[in-house]
Amino acid sequence: MTPRNADLRVRPSARCATRAGTALRPVRPWPRRLWGLTLSLLVGGAVSGVGPGVVPLAAQVQIQSPPPAGNAASAQVRAAPVRGLHPIARGALTPVPTRIPFGQSGTPAQRGATGVQPGEVILHSRDTIVQSGDTIVQAGDTIVQAGDTIVQAADTIVQNGDTIVVPADTVPEEDRVEVRNLPTFPRPVPPGWQTGVWEWDREGIQASRAMTLAELLEQVPGVLALRSGDYGNPTTVVSTGLGPGRVRIFVDGAELAPLDGGVVDLSRVGLVGLDRVRVERRPGELRIELLGLQMVDPRAYSLLEVGTGDLQTNIFRGTFAHPDALGGNVLLALDRVDTDGPVREEPGAAYGVLFRHTLLRSDRGGVSWGVRRMTSRRTPEFFQPEDVNRTDWTVRARYELWDEVISEAFYHRSSVGVNTDRDGEGADTLITADARSQAGLRMAVDRGSWWAEAELRRQGGPGWPEDAQAFRGGVLLGEWVGAAAGVERQGWNGASGVNMHGRIWSSPILGITLFAEAESGRRAIPGFVPAPIPEEDPEEEDDDETTDETEDNGDEDDEEPDEEPEVAVPPRFGEMTGIRAGAEFRRGELFVGAALLSVDPDSLHPTGLPMDRGGLSMPGGRRTGVEISGRLPLTPILDGLSLHWDTQLWEQAPQDWRYTPDRTWDVRLRYHNVFFETRNLEVWTDVGMRGRDGMTVPLADPDQVDPVMATVPLNQSWYGRIQVRVVSAKIFVHWDNFTFRDNNQDFPGRILPQTRAMYGVKWTLWN
């Protein structure tokens, strides 16, 4: 029996007797003439000459031959270390993942991309690997040679000086598969209601009912989405009525500059190519962090999301990531959502592309560059220009200086433009004049029980701060309490502002967790800077001057020239103080939390986006409220069924307090369960109602002489969702406002769709 190019796999088994025994069992054959053989070796006990510290080891050896066609493929060995193995033997087990050309066994989930299971070691045997003999492995022996018997019973498994495997450098370089990413910065403040942090990982984003980033952020209690229409129209989010300078978005540490106003237009920020979305809802700031896709598997990764529904609404998202390309990894993503809008009379779309390339020359770091371009298209009767695109370029170098010490240098540039083929003359005056850029340095230390991060940024472009410095840190005091704090300074045109934030939370005691959070200081208020008005043609100016002189009749000296109106300089900084404190109770799946809220800004500002750009800044003031959240498991009725609720109740607002309704709520009945031992079937079902009271917005009818404030009525929507995952494919059906409420709006006259049902599939593919 002389198997050619055998595939030899070694896995740990149970402890066994001192003498070796052999057992043969057939392996499932290839079609037609493939044959297989399995040899189980049970070896253990104290072996003389090996020395102390040897723990009995057992292994299972599986040998398979290639197909009869004689595929040229080399044999491979898998060995997994057993806890307590002699240091000499353990040191010889060097993980070297490689491809399995033939004879793969196990399910794809067990094999991963290459058949490599965690902790296994794989070796090629282009040289022979096992030779017949009295011992299984001796120094200098190879394991398989043609013509030799495969294995004979042996008295020993390892001797001093023996090596179990061949050196790692015998593995061809082209066969090695490594999954590498840039080092990640610490995020040690745990997500949770008590810390005010909400987080979605890659699976969480796909499991949510959100079609856009704004819809995902709207699921955070107390966060309101402000929509000026359907998809493609300007959209943003606010918290406690705060907008410019206090609603900020970061992508892998670099801040997205607001270009259309004081906040970022979320219609031009896609939901593709993300590994995680993290939201910190602080008393004085809504901090949104978007973390790029990470490589987690040596196989190529693809994600396809396709859906369609009412109002000719279509969604297409495609993501492709390759972990080993162009000296590192590559990410390419496409994003598009379009609709005919309310009553199918307001077509709109948001679409774009993301490309990122990461060059990795070391396990400790590398260089990454990428570009994201998103275009929003809206009805020209409401907003000009009709097509606006946003482009973000990023270059970063990240390196792990020492263990747990990470450094980074980055440059980010943001700009907007218009599609000149679709937009009329002068439309470019309604977008930001110049690009905004930033260059920064970051460094972080994460020692488990404490962490710290420092950041320096230099920013360019009109309408936002010129520089910023920040320091953040946290500590876990044993198992009893955790704390985090941060301070940030911003400089702008010779002035500066300092903002401080801190939070503390306890560990559960009898299921009760206490927490408190406070923020105070000055923050810069970014603003909209329009492009300059194009100069008139000199010939036309001469004609106008001639006409004026003819009609003046020589009375020019008798008239005083009109004084040019003074342009009001917008405020550069705003002050605010905020507090959040409360407690939560958890017992199993049961959760109830309550917190007191207080905010005291010195001024309130419009978002600066096209729908409220003409609004005025108004004085602020102190406002208090309470928020209550909970989850009630209904497992006695049905396993996986639960009732959830989130609400904020504020004292009655003054007439000029914008974007803060007296009440907001979201109540939903949820069913979520996973079936079968393989966990290949998962079901989500939601039926709920989200709404808010009427609220004040900073812009009334734009035809009024002095537009100041307006009020929009109650907004309420019943929604439902069914999503089923079968292995890696998710089939979904979403239905918004299925009670057909007809007057939902966030801005006067911008009525939202009365209802929309959508269905589609999200499919994750590996290789």
Mean pLDDT: 77
Low-confidence segments = 1-171, 541-559
Structural class: mainly beta
Total DSSP E strands? 39
Report the major sheet. 22 strands, antiparallel, barrel
Share of residues in helices: under 10%
Cα Rg:
32 Å
Percentage beta strand: 35-45%
In one word, what is the shape? Answer: globular
Number of DSSP helices? Answer: 5
Briefly, what is this?
The chain is mainly beta and 767 residues long. It contains five helices and 39 strands. It has a 22-stranded antiparallel barrel. Strands 7-12-13-10-11 form a five-stranded mixed sheet.
How would you sum up this structure, described in words?
The chain is mainly β. About 5% of the residues lie in helices and about 45% in strands. It is built from 5 helices and 39 strands. It has a 22-stranded antiparallel β-barrel. Strands 7-12-13-10-11 form a 5-stranded mixed beta sheet. A hairpin with a 2-residue loop joins strand 27 and strand 28. The radius of gyration is 32 Å and the shape is globular. The two termini are about 35 Å apart. About 35% of the residues are buried. The model is unreliable at about 1-170 and about 540-560 (pLDDT under 50).
Element layout with pairings:
Blueprint (H helix, E strand, L loop, with lengths): L6 E6 L11 E2 L10 E7 L15 E7 L11 E4 L7 H6 L15 H4 L9 E4 L72 E5 H6 L5 H5 L5 E5 L7 E5 L7 E5 L2 E2 L18 E9 L2 E8 L8 E9 L3 E13 L2 E12 L8 E15 L2 E13 L9 E16 L2 E14 L17 E11 L3 E11 L6 E11 L3 E12 L2 E12 L5 E13 L13 H15 L20 E15 L2 E12 L1 E2 L13 E2 L3 E11 L7 E10 L12 E13 L5 E12 L2 E3 L12 E3 L2 E12 L2 E8 L19 E11 L1
Parallel strand pairs: 10-13
Antiparallel strand pairs: 1-4, 2-3, 3-4, 5-6, 7-12, 8-9, 10-11, 12-13, 14-15, 14-39, 15-16, 16-17, 17-18, 18-19, 19-20, 20-21, 21-22, 22-23, 23-24, 24-25, 25-26, 26-27, 27-28, 28-31, 29-30, 31-32, 32-33, 33-34, 34-37, 35-36, 37-38, 38-39
